[in-house]
Amino acid sequence: MATRKAPPKAGQAKPAAEPRRKPPASRKPVTKPRAGSAPAASEPAPVLSEVRERIDGIDRQIQALIAERAGWARQVGKAKGPLKAAVDYYRPEREAQVLRQVLDRNDGPLSDEVLLRLFREIMSACLAQQEPLKVGYLGPEGTFSQQALHKHFGHSAKGLPLGSIEEVFQEVEAGNADFGVVPVENSGQGTIQSTLDMFLTSPLKICGEVELAVHQYLMSRTGRLEDIERVYSHPMSLAQARAWLRQHLPKAEKIAASSNAEAARRARTADDAAAIAGENAGHVYGLKVVAGPIEDRPDNTTRFLVLGRELFSASGHDRTSLLVYVRDQPGALYGVLSPFARHGVSMNRIESRPSHAGRWQYAFFIDVSGHVQDPGVARALAELGEYAADVKVLGSYPVALG
């Protein structure tokens, strides 16, 4: 039986890769049939026991390679020297680069989404060998924020459910959480203002983003539509299902909750109550699906931000978020935006919010393509001074994958 070589010690060169061994001539590799097609009449059907034997052999190779990858991941930690905690080993730009390579190599039959999830979990488990990352999110358990956490960090990260978006910011600032995950906008309902307002005073940086397809379900204890007299949900979810509710539950009372999971927790206490939430919340709180998905838009998507305490290096496909305080003078906003156009920097989003610095004074949240280290972005930022009273870089981070 072949033995697996241990990873070299820190400082040693990585051994040259051995040439790929060809399968023994006596064992023919199992050919992969095209999806949905039967074997050709001229080809004999494969023997089930031989196919299973081949799969078992591949599984052993996969397991050995995962163990080898985990060993090399530990070598990375040793190469970086003695660091303080798991957060010091996490590099979102490197993770994004690895996952993009996974997508570039994918020729099927598994989808990009499936492969991203598999490799994300492998990297999450490798990173957590010494200590898992602690990630705060808008709780309780079962929220879409928790789903976004798992999509970005994998299930080996330790989730910390918190009662509000403000608490997520506070726990990351205090160092009780390594990172935080908060919703920032929905494709149909727009921006979550409470998240933007936190950036007006918080020193935290954006170090990642997650896009999550959101499917809303109506759930209750009995599972019967005719029993429902009141519906709990987050205000944004109530808005996302407004047309469905108007048609099927026009007389039911709609009650806002701090999160969809909190709505599910409240709905489990009475037969005449229901909640609009994700299926995961229904599993957590023992509710039955009455109907769903019930969102008015089939492409309903929510974007989440990953909060951290530092800026990270460029990954090669990044976005930069800015907070710009504009001077009160004619043409100020035009003067702020024109440098990006001159230097070929695409603007993805702009939104104004009261700046809290004085009455009728506003700050602009601007997203642009690229990283602050990119020459075009750097030159554009350098030219903002004449029209911008202050410019704060909220973060430069990899564009969401999948």
From TrEMBL:
Chorismate mutase domain segment(s): 42-134
Q: Which Pfam families match?
A: ACT (PF01842), CM_2 (PF01817), PDT (PF00800)
Q: Which residues form the Prephenate dehydratase domain?
A: 134-309
UniProt-annotated site: Essential for prephenate dehydratase activity, residues: T302
Q: Where is the composition biased (Basic residues)?
A: 22-31
Where in this protein does the record put region Disordered? 1-48
Location in the cell reads: Cytoplasm
Tell me the superkingdom of the source. Answer: Bacteria
Q: Which biological pathway?
A: Amino-acid biosynthesis; L-phenylalanine biosynthesis; phenylpyruvate from prephenate: step 1/1; Metabolic intermediate biosynthesis; prephenate biosynthesis; prephenate from chorismate: step 1/1
Which Gene Ontology BP terms does the record give?
chorismate metabolic process; L-phenylalanine biosynthetic process
Q: Which GO terms describe its molecular function?
A: chorismate mutase activity; prephenate dehydratase activity
The record's InterPro entries line, in alphabetical order, gives:
ACT-like_dom_sf, ACT_dom, Chor_mutase/pphenate_deHydtase, Chorismate_II_sf, CM_dom_sf, CM_II_prokaryot, G/b/e-P-prot_chorismate_mutase, Preph_deHydtase
Indicate yes or no for the key word Amino-acid biosynthesis.
yes
* Swiss-Prot/TrEMBL catalytic activity: prephenate + H(+) = 3-phenylpyruvate + CO2 + H2O; chorismate = prephenate
- Domain ACT, by residue range, is 321-398
Q: Keywords assigned by UniProt?
A: Amino-acid biosynthesis, Aromatic amino acid biosynthesis, Cytoplasm, Isomerase, Lyase, Multifunctional enzyme, Phenylalanine biosynthesis
Question: PROSITE patterns of this UniProt entry?
Answer: ACT, CHORISMATE_MUT_2, PREPHENATE_DEHYDR_1, PREPHENATE_DEHYDR_3
Annotated Low complexity bias = 33-46
| Any one GO cellular component localisation term in the record | cytoplasm
User: Matching SMART domains, A to Z?
Assistant: CM_2 (SM00830)
Enzyme Commission number(s) of this protein: 4.2.1.51, 5.4.99.5
Matches recorded under NCBIfam families? CM_P2 (TIGR01807), PRK11898.1 (NF008865)
Q: What does this protein do?
A: Catalyzes the Claisen rearrangement of chorismate to prephenate and the decarboxylation/dehydration of prephenate to phenylpyruvate.
Which PANTHER family does the entry mention? PREPHENATE DEHYDRATASE P PROTEIN, PREPHENATE DEHYDRATASE-RELATED
This protein is called what?
A: Bifunctional chorismate mutase/prephenate dehydratase
